[in-house]
TrEMBL record, chain A:
NCBIfam families: oligo_HPY. Belongs to the ABC transporter superfamily. GO terms for biological process: peptide transport; transmembrane transport. It comes from Nonomuraea cavernae. One of its GO terms (molecular function) is ATP hydrolysis activity. Coiled coil: none annotated. It comes from the Bacteria. Residues 3-240 form the ABC transporter domain. This is ABC transporter ATP-binding protein. Keywords: ATP-binding, Nucleotide-binding, Transport. CDD domains: ABC_NikE_OppD_transporters.
TrEMBL record, chain B:
Residues 259-269 have a biased composition (Pro residues). The lineage of its organism: Bacteria, Bacillati, Actinomycetota, Actinomycetes, Streptosporangiales. CDD domains: ABC_NikE_OppD_transporters. This is Dipeptide/oligopeptide/nickel ABC transporter ATP-binding protein. It comes from Nonomuraea cavernae. PANTHER family: DIPEPTIDE TRANSPORT ATP-BINDING PROTEIN DPPD, OLIGOPEPTIDE TRANSPORT ATP-BINDING PROTEIN APPD. One of its GO terms (molecular function) is ATP binding. Residues 236-286 are annotated as: Disordered. Its main location: membrane.
Length: 301, 286
C-alpha cells in the first residue's frame, strides 16, 4: 500500500509561454501508516507533485505507483476509485459549490460502503456542529470550509490521504487538533498521509518524516525530529530559521537573500546556489543528484 | 507614538438570516500602524472586514458605525462606496480566488484598477504593475504580467492578490490571512513589505491572522475575537506576553512548539553552529 514516486518530472505547458518544469526529478515514498510532511518555498511544485500522485496532472517523466500499480490519469469524478483522496489547497476545489455539504459527505460514505456513519457524525469529528450538514459551501467561514473538505475526504476511508495545506485557515489550537485527528485516522486505518503545509510546527507535530522541496526537487528527507534538531541542507536551515516566534518582541523574520527562482528558467548547477550562503565552486557547475541531503556539503561518503 | 486614527469601527453588529454573527465590534486603525486581529474560526473576523468594504453576503444586515474620516461607510451611497473600495480602502481576501478574476491576466487586473482609480496611462500602469509583482516576490515579474491566475501556485495567487490590493496606494488595507499560503521565507518578505508601507507611507493595516508568530513580528496592536465580539485589545507585547482573556491564553498555550529552542538557524555546517541570540533580528535585507 505504498505510494512510490520515482524521478518524477511534471511540466506545465501553455500556448505561447515557456515550459514550466514544476517538478524536476523528485523521488518520495509514503508507506502505509506513515505520515510524511512535505514543505518548501511557495511555487516549488508541492501541489503539482500532489496532483500528479492523484492522477490529476500528467506525468512527463518518471513514475508514480500506488500499491504496486501505476497511478493512471483520472478525471476528478473517478478519483475515489483509486483509494487515494486529496484535500485541495483551495477548499472550493474539493467541494461542489451548488450542493449541500451533507450530500457531498454522503457520497464519500457510499464509496466506502459505510452505512453506520452519517454526514453529521463526520462533521462532528472535525469539530463542526452537526446541523451544518444542510449548508452550502459559501455559508461557512474559511476555516469551517477547510474542515468540511477534510470531513468529505475522510468519509471515503482512503488508503492514502493527501492534504494540500488542509488546515491553513484554522487557529493554533484547532490546527493542532485537526492535524492530530488526520494523523490518528490515517495511522489507525493503516493508510498513508502526505501532508503539505507551510506551518512547520504542525508538520513537526504529526509527521514521521519531513521532505523539503526546493524548485522542483526534494533537497532533504529525514526523520522529523532529526531534521528539526539538525537541518543539514542550507535551504532547510533558512526555512527553519525564518519561523516567526510568538514572543511579542516585534522581530521580523529573516528573508532568503536573492530572487525567488523561476522554474521556467532554473539556475544551472545546484538549484539553490545563487541564494546559498555556503556556495562553493562545485555548486555552480554540477547538480547534486543524491540524497538524503542533496547538497555538496553532505555528499555521502 | 501618537498617530492619527483613520478608520473607526464602533458597535458593529451584523446578522445573517436572523443569526447575529457580529455582536458589537469595536476596532480602530491608525496611520502607519498594523492592527492584528486573531480569533477563533468562525468568530467574525472576515465579516468585520467585509462590512468595511460593504461586501457582506446577500441578506446581511449591519448596524453601528464604520467611520473613515468624517464619512460613515455603513450609510455611504453605493457610488461613493465604490470609489472608496479599491481606492482609499483595499482588501486582500482570505480566499485568493475571490480577489482574482479567472479569465483575465493578472497584468490586466492590476492595471485596470490603477487606470480606473489613479488615471495613469497604459505604459505607466504596466511599469507599476511589474514593479509590484516583483515586490511581492513573484519570479519573472515581467513575464508573469501576461499569465492567468490558474498558471500560478496557490501562494503566488495570494501574492498577486496583495499586489492588486496595493496597486492604488490605499490608505487602509484590510488583509485577511494574507500569508497563510506562503512558506516562512517568502512570508518574511511580504511582512517586510507591509511593514515598510506602514512606516514609510503611513498605511493603516488590519491584519487578520491566526498565526501568533506573524502577529508578534508585525502587529503594533492586537485584538482577539470570539463569537462575534472583540474580547481583548492591547499593545502587541502586552497581549502576547500577559494575555488577559482566557481564550487568548489558550491560543498561546496551544502552540505546538512553545517549549524547546527554535531549530538550528545558523547558516554554518552542523558542528560549527554559532547560535545567535534568538531575539536579535537576523539577515536584514530590507
Ligand atoms: N454566507 C453566509 N451565510 C450565513 N452564515 C455565514 C455566511 N458566511 C459566514 N457565515 C457565518 O458567520 C460567522 C462568522 O464568519 P467569518 O467568516 O467572519 O469567520 P472568521 O472569523 O473569518 O473565521 P475563519 O478564521 O474560519 O475564517 C461564522 O459562524 C460563519 O459560519
Ligand atoms: N496550470 C499551470 N500552468 C503553468 N504553470 C503552472 C500551472 N500550475 C502551476 N504552475 C507553475 O508551476 C510551479 C509550481 O506550482 P505549484 O502549484 O506546484 O507550487 P506549490 O509548491 O504548491 O506552491 P504554493 O506553496 O504557493 O501552493 C509554479 O511556478 C507555478 O507558477
Ligand atoms: Mg500549492
Ligand atoms: Mg475568515
Amino acid at each position: 500500500m505504498t505510494l512510490d514516486i520515482r524521478d518524477l518530472v511534471v511540466e506545465h505547458r501553455s500556448p505561447g509561454r515557456p515550459v514550466v518544469r514544476a517538478v524536476a526529478g523528485a523521488s518520495l515514498t509514503v508507506s502505509p501508516g506513515e505520515v510524511v510532511g512535505l514543505v518548501g518555498e511557495s511555487g516549488c511544485g508541492k501541489s503539482t507533485l500532489a496532483r500528479a500522485a492523484c492522477g490529476l496532472n500528467p506525468v512527463t517523466e518518471g513514475s508514480i505507483t500506488f500499491e504496486g500499480r501505476p497511478v493512471a490519469p483520472l478525471g476528478l469524478r473517478r478519483r475515489r476509485e483509486t483509494g487515494i483522496q486529496m484535500v485541495f489547497q483551495d477548499p472550493y476545489a474539493s467541494l461542489n459549490p451548488r450542493r449541500r455539504v451533507g450530500d457531498q459527505i454522503a457520497d464519500g460514505l457510499r464509496t466506502a460502503r459505510d452505512t453506520a456513519a452519517t454526514p453529521a457524525d463526520l462533521l462532528e469529528r472535525v469539530g463542526l456542529p452537526r446541523d451544518f450538514a444542510g449548508r452550502h459551501p459559501h455559508e461557512f467561514s474559511g476555516g469551517q470550509r477547510q474542515r468540511v473538505a477534510i470531513a468529505r475526504a475522510l468519509a471515503a476511508r482512503p488508503r492514502m490521504l493527501i492534504g494540500d495545506e488542509p488546515i491553513s485557515a484554522l487557529d493554533a489550537s484547532a490546527q493542532a487538533q485537526v492535524a492530530t485527528l488526520m494523523r490518528d485516522l490515517a495511522v489507525d486505518a493503516g493508510a498513508g498521509l502526505l501532508f503539505i503545509s507551510h506551518d512547520l510546527s504542525v508538520v513537526r507535530l504529526i509527521a514521521d518524516r519531513i521532505a523539503v522541496m526546493y524548485l522542483g526537487r526534494i533537497v532533504e528527507v529525514g526523520d522529523t525530529a532529526e531534521v528539526w534538531a539538525n537541518p543539514r541542507h542550507p535551504y532547510t536551515r533558512a526555512l527553519l530559521g525564518a519561523i516567526p516566534r510568538p514572543d511579542g518582541m516585534g522581530v521580523l523574520p529573516a528573508e532568503l537573500p536573492g530572487d525567488v527562482p523561476d522554474p521556467a528558467n532554473p539556475p544551472g548547477g545546484c538549484r539553490f546556489h545563487p541564494r546559498c550562503p555556503l556556495v562553493m565552486d562545485v555548486c555552480r557547475d554540477e547538480e547534486p543528484r543524491f540524497g538524503p541531503v542533496a547538497c555538496w556539503l553532505h555528499e555521502a561518503k | 507614538m501618537t498617530s492619527r486614527s483613520v478608520l473607526d469601527i464602533s458597535g458593529l453588529k451584523v446578522s445573517i438570516g436572523g443569526r447575529e454573527v457580529l455582536r458589537g465590534v469595536d476596532l480602530s486603525l491608525a496611520e502607519g500602524r498594523v492592527h492584528g486581529l486573531a480569533g477563533e474560526s468562525g468568530s467574525g473576523k472576515t465579516m468585520t472586514g467585509l462590512a468595511v468594504l460593504g461586501l457582506l453576503p446577500h441578506g446581511a444586515r449591519a448596524t453601528g458605525r464604520i467611520a473613515l474620516g468624517d464619512r460613515d461607510l455603513l450609510t455611504l451611497p453605493p457610488r461613493e462606496l465604490n470609489r472608496v473600495r479599491g481606492g482609499e480602502v483595499a482588501m486582500v481576501f482570505q480566499d485568493p480566488a475571490t480577489s482574482l478574476h479567472p479569465m483575465l491576466t493578472v497584468g490586466r487586473q492590476l492595471t485596470e484598477h490603477m487606470r480606473h482609480h489613479l488615471g495613469v496611462d497604459k505604459a505607466e500602469a504596466r511599469a507599476r504593475a511589474v514593479e509590484l509583482l516583483g515586490k511581492v516576490r513573484i519570479p519573472g515579474a515581467d513575464e508573469a504580467f501576461g499569465r492567468f491566475p490558474h498558471q500560478f501556485s496557490g501562494g503566488m495567487r495570494q501574492r498577486v492578490a496583495i499586489a492588486i490590493a496595493l496597486a492604488c496606494s490605499p490608505k487602509v488595507l484590510i488583509a485577511d490571512e494574507p500569508t497563510t499560503a506562503l512558506d516562512v521565507t517568502v512570508q518574511a518578505g511580504v511582512l517586510r513589505l507591509l511593514r515598510g508601507l506602514c512606516d514609510e507611507l503611513g498605511l493603516a493595516v488590519l491584519l487578520v491572522t491566526h498565526d501568533l508568530g506573524v502577529m508578534s513580528a508585525i502587529a503594533d496592536e492586537v485584538s482577539v475575537m470570539r463569537e462575534g465580539l472583540v474580547v481583548e485589545t492591547g499593545p502587541r507585547g502586552q497581549v502576547l506576553r500577559e494575555p488577559a482573556h482566557p481564550y487568548t491564553r489558550s491560543l498561546l498555550d496551544a502552540l505546538p512548539d512553545s517549549s524547546p529552542e527554535p531549530p538550528g538557524s545558523a547558516p554554518e555546517p552542523p558542528d560549527a553552529r554559532t547560535d545567535s541570540s534568538p531575539d536579535s533580528p537576523t539577515g536584514e535585507t530590507a
